[in-house]
Amino acid sequence: SQTIHQWPATLVQPVGSPLSLECTVEGTSNPNLYWYRQAAGRGLQLLFYSVGIGQISSEVPQNLSASRPQDRQFILSSKKLLLSDSGFYLCAWSADLAGRDGYTFGSGTRLTVV
Amino acid sequence: KQEVTQIPAALSVPEGENLVLNCSFTDSAIYNLQWFRQDPGKGLTSLLLIQSSQREQTSGRLNASLDKSSGRSTLYIAASQPGDSATYLCAVIGDSNYQLIWGAGTKLIIKP
Question: Which residues of B56-82 are buried (b: 16+ CB within 10 A; e: fewer)?
Fold first, then answer.
């Protein structure tokens, strides 16, 4: 069966520090991968999606970047964090871009920038 | 532009009641609709996925219906339990741009 792992679960980082969040998927190949952010009291915002190694699409301009160095690995990064980057970050995967079999989410990373 | 609305925003009921959560969307051109549950501080757990050609899906005490033409989906929870307390989110996928469009969620509290 397919599983998705996301770490760390919580992170407190000072403003201006770098960020690296990792997401890996097991039990499937060539998944579509997604990074979402959920700000407090707000809905989910799609940040990036990837349909293959090295292929990244950004949905919103921001201080963050994403990379996909391996088929089942998706990384969210920042060179210098801002206070506004605080939030709950969720990784997800789907078998295809149309989500025919739905989307599966990881357990999330709570990022607090101080 | 697709918009998804969930009503009510919050609901508190005694244990054992049957309840209905509502999700409406403005554009009926959807590919499918998915219901999720989110516990506080946790990720999203998929509950039910309904393809646009389907009318309903069932899993245990949960039943989700879809009326695409009227832009509505309902999540029916039978015999509610305190463990059902969570935020329930619905999301639709448009059949043209394949983006997930989210509702704001319904926060459900089941009182023992």
Answer: ebeeeebbbbbebeebebbbebeebee
Beta strands in A15-72 (DSSP E): 19-26, 32-38, 44-52, 55-58, 65-70
A99 closest CB neighbour out of B31, B41, B102: B31
Distance from CA of A16 to the nearest CA of B (A): 25
Q: How many residues does chain B have?
A: 112
A57: contact with B, CB 8 A cutoff: no
**How far is Cα of residue A47 from the mean position of the Cα atoms in its chain?**
8
Mode of pairing for the β-strands spanning A65-70 and A73-78: antiparallel
Q: What does the pLDDT look like over A48-72, one tens digit per residue?
A: 999 999 999 988 877 899 999 999 9
pLDDT, one tens digit per residue, over B4-48 is: 999 999 999 999 999 999 999 999 999 899 999 999 889 999 999
Q: Which tens digits make up the pLDDT trace of B14-23?
A: 999 999 999 9
